[in-house]
Task: structure prediction
Amino acid sequence: MVDARIALDAMGGDRAPQETVRGAIEAVGQDAALHVVLVGREPELLAELETATGAARDRIEIFHASEVVGGGDSAAMGYRKEDGSIRRACELVKADKVDGLVAAGNTAATVTAAVAVLKRLPRVRRPGIAVPLPTAKSQCILCDAGANIHCKPVHLFHYGIMASLYFTAMFEKERPTIGLMNIGSEEGKGTGLVKETARLFSETDLNFIGNVEGNDVFNGRCDVIICEGFVGNVILKTAEGLYKLISHRVHEVQGVLDTVAKEGNEGVRDALRRFRSNADWSEQGGAPLLGINGMVLICHGRSDSRAIRNGILQAARIHRRQVLQAMAHGLVEEGGVS
Result:
């Protein structure tokens, strides 16, 4: 029984359509209740699907879209290309023909298409990208990671409400802690933007712990970290670069560690697996675009089949946990700011 139908912008990303289609095949192979709709140029997608057989192939279909939004295209092209794969995927979500979509292409164009086609949830002024990041305790959600770089206090406030609701739905933790990114933890520090945002948070029942600094991102001090998109994207890209450096250093001594593991110390090998699973962005899959009246998951432009697979599986989990419904209800309950 199929209980999740996810559209994939199969033409989006640096390695499409080869890796996107492979990721879809791997996803349906791991989830027997999953159906994937590949959106893109049918002849190219059919050629890539030749490797899929049996039950997996039966749960993958193609929705033809003749145009592709490239990485160098402007954000507006996400909507202006009427037969573009990302716009068509958004339209499938709006028509309730799929339960959500996954895209690894032009992020700005994806956000533009999603806002134009799906519209925003009631009370939400701007959508925000909620990125999971590893911490010393487990993981946290950083929002926004690049959807909106011209923020007002109300935008950051809504990010806090939505990211908190998302964290509760996905990680089953009531009243997750919320921190506001600043240049100091002391009350009253920072720009007018963060000061006014802190005031908005303090007047609610949200579990707001105040300002946090850059070194708090990975120490597990809070579950949700709120910041404007410019700052969030810098944090995200810095984290990715640091992981790449650490991974390279680990690889340099991999031979030694493998020898130790072969001699009976499986703990070393297990520790390496946990490190990769916790810190590798490919294992996380993607980041949901919060505030849209439809489920949109944004993957890294460099995503390979593993990342696409994990993104699709994550999108199915979000749908099954009814995160969008919880978020819409929570925004009304919290009162929002119109």
User: Anything to note?
Assistant: The longest strand covers residues 34-40. The two ends are 41 Å apart (CA to CA). The CA atoms of residues 165 and 330 lie 7 Å apart. The mean pLDDT is 88.
